[in-house]
Amino acid sequence: MADPDIVLLGAPASGKGTQGRKLAQELNLSFLSTGKQLRREVEAGSELGREAEGYLAQGQYVPDSLALAIALKWLRKATGGWVLDGFPRTLAQAQELDDFLKQRAQRMKAILLEIHTAELERRVRERRECVSCSWTGTREQAEEMGSCPSCGGKLVYRSDDNLQNFRNRHQAFVELTGPVIDYYDSSQRLQRVNGLGSVEAVFETVRAVCKGGNDGQAT
Ligand code: AMP
Predict the structure, then answer these.
(1) Which of 43, 88, 127, 153 has the most other CB atoms within 10 Å of its CB?
(2) For 123-160, how does the pLDDT look when each residue is reduced to its tens digit (9 = 90+)?
(3) In 78-198, which ranges are continuous DSSP H helix?
(4) CA 1 → CA 4, 99, 123, 189, 211, distances in Å?
(5) Which residue has the least CA distance to atom 14 on ligand 1?
(6) Which of 62, 72, 75, 85 maximizes ligand 1 atoms within 8 Å of its Cβ, making it the mutation to test the pocket?
(7) What pTM was estimated for this model as a whole?
């Protein structure tokens, strides 16, 4: 059987990065977070980073051309199956991805992590991320461990994780990613997963969905 291709959809702080990295590791798939890649470009001061910087600072989506440049460049080089965290985020991006994938597009799965807004806001306040490998955990874990448990890197509060920025990103998710959800739903590629629960419990459901089962309930 061909390796799976998986797109993870969800509001900011719904757990896409955490679940995506675990899934890629477990199923031996390549992993791309367009958000993380954009933050890297900003830090490196590249031309793309300079174009993206203002959008990220305000919690707005970057223009489709920038997101597509990152994702398609990466996909051209990827071998085997993959997990995409945070791409596509607009209908135009989803359609471009389908064009790029051709027949392979039909067997791709889109997994939507569903979580209510109050929990998302709580997670944003608590979230800490490794500057090197983008491991993500809570403030409590960061204080306990002192450094990243995965690579020893520094754990920091993401600069775009303030509440107003979160609300802007959430609004963009509802308005611009809502049509992507409908698009995958209407082409029978969408799987909804309850994102509430421990990382392990949600992951069990995500993994089951990827392997074909799909009750979508984390326990
Ligand atoms: P994330 O790390 O997935 O939360 O993404 C952080 C930020 O990067 C988002 O709030 C957007 O500003 C930007 N971003 C990431 N992926 C995309 C995309 N596919 N399209 C537009 N903007 C994106």
Answers:
(1) 88
(2) 998 989 998 888 889 999 999 999 999 999 999 988 77
(3) 91-101, 117-126, 139-145, 163-172, 178-186
(4) 9, 22, 37, 18, 11
(5) 35
(6) 62
(7) 0.88
